[in-house]
Specification:
Layout (H helix, E strand, L loop, with lengths): L1 H19 L5 H10 L2 H30 L1
Pfam family, one: DUF5316
Protein name: DUF5316 family protein
Keywords: Membrane, Transmembrane, Transmembrane helix
């Protein structure tokens, strides 16, 4: 259960970072910002927020299992 929780936490954090655009440089981020609609940007941020939250929850579960 510990490995599963930790792995799922990392996977959800990576998904959140991808949808958030955390791993692109400034020119790519500027290009993405001006080429997408407000609706698409809101959708990306919702996915990033939910997956980031799930990632944190799974990592907290893994820490709880590990320490207790």
């Amino acid at each position: 259960m510990l490995k599963f929780s930790f792995t799922m936490g990392i996977v959800f954090i990576v998904i959140s970072a991808i949808f958030n655009g955390a791993w692109v440089d400034g020119q790519q981020q500027r290009g993405n910002f001006f080429s997408e609609t407000d609706e698409h940007r809101k959708f990306r941020m919702v996915i990033a927020t939910y997956s980031g939250s799930l990632g944190i929850v799974f990592l907290l579960i893994a820490a709880f299992i590990y320490f207790f």
